[in-house]
Amino acid sequence: MKIALLVLLGLLLGALGGAALGIGAGLACVELLRISSFEGQNAMLVFFTFMPLGAAIGGIGGALLFGVIAIRDAEIAIEQEPGRRRER
User: Fold this and answer.
1) Long-range residue pairs from 64-69, CB within 8 A, at least 24 positions apart, any chain
2) Which of 5, 26, 29, 69 has the greatest number of beta carbons closer than 10 A?
3) DSSP state of 76
4) Cβ neighbourhood burial of 66 (10 Å; 0-12, 13-18, 19+)
5) What pLDDT does residue 14 have?
6) So what's the pLDDT on residue 77?
7) Domain limits, the chain
8) pTM surpassing 0.90?
9) Using CB atoms within 10 A of its CB, is residue 18 exposed (0-12), middle (13-18) or buried (19+)?
10) pLDDT (tens digit, 9 = 90+) per residue, 52-84?
């Protein structure tokens, strides 16, 4: 259950971060390629192309990353024995 919740958290955080990076990449592309702003063409390009692509890629990447971390943590988790008391 812990792994599934961490994967969902990774999906959510990755989608948010990817959408933000997608907007940034879209704005950079609009400026570099000098896309016309007639009737909001550049805004539609950024918010209907770059943002969803960034959110999808970021969501998948975040889910995979958090899933791998959760699975490795579950494999490595070993109970430690309580420390011995020093005899005086």
Assistant:
1) 64/10, 65/10, 65/14, 66/6, 66/7, 66/9, 66/10, 66/11, 66/13, 66/14, 67/3, 67/6, 67/7, 67/10, 69/6
2) 26
3) H
4) buried
5) 96
6) 54
7) 2-74
8) no
9) buried
10) 999 999 999 999 999 999 888 766 655 566 666
Which pair of tokens denotes residue 17?
């971060």
Q: How do residues 2-52 score in pLDDT, each as one tens digit? A: 889 999 999 999 999 999 999 999 999 999 999 888 888 999 999 999 999
Residue by residue, DSSP assigns 34-75 as T---GGGHHHHHIIIIIHHHHHHHHHHHHHHHHHHHHHHHHH
How much is the pLDDT for 78?
Answer: 58
- Spatial CB neighbours of 23, under 8 Å, sequence gap ≥ 6: 46, 47, 50, 51, 54
Are the CB atoms for 66 and 3 separated by under 8 Å?
no
